[in-house]
Amino acid sequence: MRWINYDSKLALLLVLLLSVSTRIKASSEDGEFNQCEHIVKKWASSSLDSEINEDKHILRDLLYFLHVPRTGGRTYYYCFLKRLYANSSECPRSYDRLRLDPRIKASSEDGEFNQCEHIVKKWASSSLDSEINEDKHILRDLLYFLHVPRTGGRTYYYCFLKRLYANSSECPRSYDRLRLDPRKPDCRLLVTHDDYSVMSKLPREKTSVVTILRDPIDRVFSTYEFSVEVAARFLVHPNLTSALRMTGRLRAKTRGGVSTLDIWPWKYLVPWMREDLFSRREARRRKGWPSIYGDDPYDMEDVVMPLHKYINDPIAQEIVHNGATYQIAGLTNNSYLAESHEVRHCIQKYQPLGEYVLDVAKKRLDNMLYVGLTENHRESATMFANVVGAQAISKFAGSNSRKGLVANSIPGQSSLIPDIDPDSNYHLSNSTYPKPGKFSSTDTVEATNEDMTTRKLMEGYETCISSLRSTQSQRRANSLKNIRPANFTKEARRRISKVLFQEITSLNYLDVELYKYAQGIFANQQQYAMPTKVGEKMTRSRQW
Predict the structure, then answer these.
(1) What angle do CA 207, 514, 261 make, to 5 degrees?
(2) 387 and 369 in contact (C-beta within 8 Å)?
(3) Where are the beta strands (DSSP E) in 217-289?
(4) Which in 59, 72, 76, 407 has the greatest CB count within 10 A?
């Protein structure tokens, strides 16, 4: 009974304490509520007082799109607003660019725009003035193949140009051999990813320029896929440190050799993707692997950088988007021009200034000996054989310089195909852009009209491209095994959202316009470059 009485007294005491506490709390909460009510009412009153009651149906000078997350606002941004407003019209750091910076005034923007406009106009004027207006339809002493990445230019190099020009005719360090070495005065062939600014190192009056363009959207996809494909080859190593050490040792042993990491733009894109792939693989390993949701290889974040993040990264903005226009204009980050960075920066900041770059790029396309289109593969190849091939055959057939055609090489043999090792033990010594295999003794044989014709050139091309594609396909398949289940296919590309396609189109507005212009040039070329009869020389007096 004593314990019961004690417990009862304790319970009574607790009830009294709780009652007092409740009264104190209620009193305290009433005070807090009143304080909060005052704060909210004050805010609401000032907010309503600050509203402007003018006609809301009139679009004012500044449009503020209040984007509530996950409402589809990005669709409106890319599919409406990016088409209605120039990049230069956007407030600094607006939308997905952190927070608004109110310190930049309109007057400052106007001043910067005027300065940029002056810089770009000055560059454009000097660029157009330096163009040579001689007959563009004649193959001159030096052929400069301006290879825009991911357009199929390497096929032309191995399956056309390697049959038309001897190794000894190539300019030192051309194509994938870093940058041009102009010390060899009598070279006849320059095939390179260097942009048009390399013309400052060449004898303009003796140089013919050719190039191939590709649909800009497809080229962005291809650049993304190839960057990942090459980077994925390093995943045979346990970690990034191991891969870098092995790479360093192999490159030290093969001095003078060339790797993908030496070549623009891959020397920037591949290391970026390589580091990203290792980082994602390590993150999955720490979590105990699995995860991976969905089957879209372009949005498989556990394995590879999603495409939508890739295209919005500053590296892609600098190198990938509008890459063809900048390359033909001579304004890439690999340019020989000192002012290229400043001009490119101004164009990227103020979209309307891109028109000046387009004018220069279009003028240069007009002055080229040949402009091909990746999408019109067969017609482009035939045209190349009849425009460039026929003139080269004619030009070298009458020469005694021993720098003419590789006439007797058997198309499709290993001598025409890069020595690519697709095995899992792939290292940089077996570069994605390896040195081409040596040609036979025909490298020093002087061709005659009987040795080579445009028909034989095209027949050799067909055999060569078949072998080359087979090798490249196998290499790609082996590489993508390292990032399974991600696998880039045409079917997967067709499933990409329209919004993402629109975003890529918007980001590549210059390339889109230049490609349309190139299509017009291509159509005109077709009218005047029909296949010639076997052995028939190109008529130099032909007017296009």
Answers:
(1) 65
(2) yes
(3) none
(4) 407
412 C-beta neighbours (distance < 10 Å), count:
18
Q: How many CB atoms lie within 10 A of CB 166?
A: 25
Structure tokens at 352: 């309307």
Active site residues: 204, 225
Q: Residue 209 carries which side chain, given as an amino acid letter?
A: V
Burial of 73 (0-12, 13-18, 19+ CB in 10 A): middle
CA distance 81 to 473: 40
Q: What is the pTM of this model?
A: 0.73
Q: What is the rounded distance in angstroms from the CA atom of residue 265 to the CA atom of residue 270?
A: 9
Q: How far is CA 2 from CA 6, 16, 62, in A?
A: 6, 21, 82
SS (H, E, C) 270-319: HHHHHHHHHHHHHHHHHCCCCCCCCCCHHHCCCCCCCHHHHHHCHHHHHH
| Separation CA 513–CA 509 (nearest Å) | 6
SS3 string, 13-66, reads HHHHHHHHHHHHHHHHHHHHHHHHHHHHHHHHHHHHHCCCCCCCCCCCCCCCCC
What are the backbone angles phi and psi of residue 163, rounded to the nearest 5°? -95, -20
Please list, in sequence order, all residues whose beta carbon lies within 8 angstroms of the beta carbon of residue 523, skipping any fewer than 6 positions away: none
Written as one string, the DSSP assignment of 435-447 is PBPPP-GGGGPPP
List the beta bridge partners of residue 142. Answer: 207
Burial of 106 (0-12, 13-18, 19+ CB in 10 A): exposed
Per-residue pLDDT of the chain (544 residues; tens, 9 = 90+): 444 455 666 667 666 666 656 665 556 677 888 889 888 988 887 777 777 777 677 787 788 889 888 787 777 877 778 767 766 667 765 444 445 545 444 456 678 999 999 999 999 999 988 777 777 889 999 999 999 999 999 999 999 999 999 888 888 764 444 456 655 667 899 999 999 999 998 888 999 999 999 999 999 999 999 999 999 999 999 999 999 998 888 777 766 566 778 889 999 999 999 999 999 999 989 888 777 778 899 999 999 999 999 999 999 999 999 999 999 999 999 999 999 999 999 999 999 999 999 999 999 999 999 999 999 999 999 999 999 999 999 887 655 443 445 443 433 333 333 333 322 232 333 333 333 333 333 333 333 344 688 899 999 999 999 988 888 899 999 999 999 899 999 999 999 999 999 999 999 999 999 999 999 999 999 887 665 433 344 443 333 3
Apex 24 CA angle, 19 and 27, nearest 5:
125
The helix/strand/coil state of 538 is: coil
Could you tell me if 217 and 504 are in contact, meaning their C-beta atoms sit under 8 angstroms apart? yes
Cα–Cα distance list, 398 to 142, 207, 241, 434, 534 (Å): 17, 20, 56, 33, 18
- Report the DSSP beta bridge partners of residue 175: 192
Strands (E), 147-206: 189-192
Q: Hey, what are 91's tokens?
A: 């407030």
Contacts for 21 with CB less than 8 Å, ≥ 6 apart: none
